[in-house]
Design goal:
single chain, 102 residues, alpha+beta, 3 helices
Length: 102
């Protein structure tokens, strides 16, 4: 199963830091997201893009996880030559992550 079947996502950026939220469509799926969308899995998923730390914040009352990824935007908006300078496509890429069918 891919993550987008259970959640939607939104991104933001500040300098060379990307912020990605993962929000469960159904609050009952939050625990499953919390269990399977870990810092280690997100960092591995973005191993070619994220060169710094990944920090996860849990927001159980709204059924969401928030990931802050450092050194993730090729230097930041004013320094990168990337086509997606704000990293908006990172949310779509994260939603392609495989998660177990449990």
């Amino acid at each position: 199963m891919i993550l987008r079947e259970l959640a939607h996502s939104r991104t933001g950026d500040k300098g060379n830091t990307s912020n990605i939220s993962v929000i469960a469509y159904d609050p009952q799926d939050y625990e499953r997201l919390r269990r399977h969308v870990t810092v280690d899995r997100v960092k591995a998923h973005f191993s070619d893009v994220v060169h710094g730390d990944v920090v996860r914040y849990e927001l159980p009352k709204i059924g969401a996880l928030n990931f802050v990824m450092y050194e993730a935007l090729g230097g930041g908006v004013t320094r990168t030559l990337a086509l997606d300078i704000h990293g908006k496509c990172l949310s779509s890429a994260l939603l392609l992550m495989d998660i177990p069918n449990d």
